[in-house]
Amino acid sequence: MSKKRKTYTPEEKAKVVLEILREESTLNEISQKHGVSPQLISRWRTELPTVFDKKSSQIENMKKEHAAEKEDLINQIGQLTVDMNWLKKKQQQVLELKKRKP
Prior knowledge:
transposase activity, sequence-specific DNA binding, Transposase_8, Transposase, Trp_repressor/repl_initiator
């Protein structure tokens, strides 16, 4: 009977690597705590920046979309402000005309 290899999610890997980076425990203590070999943890630590690099392009795309949406909303606010000011002026003009004509 062959033993099935355990797979770890990126979240689990990041959690273990962050424990190492905090330097609260030794590598061996952390490996025993999580049941992972020290060599595997060391490999995860070297791979960690590449995990963040893959997501950075997604983050940049989200930032661009957010900036475009923000710009659109700012333009809408500006247009609504102009419309509101125009309506206020027209309302005042109409009220003045009604006062003049009894």
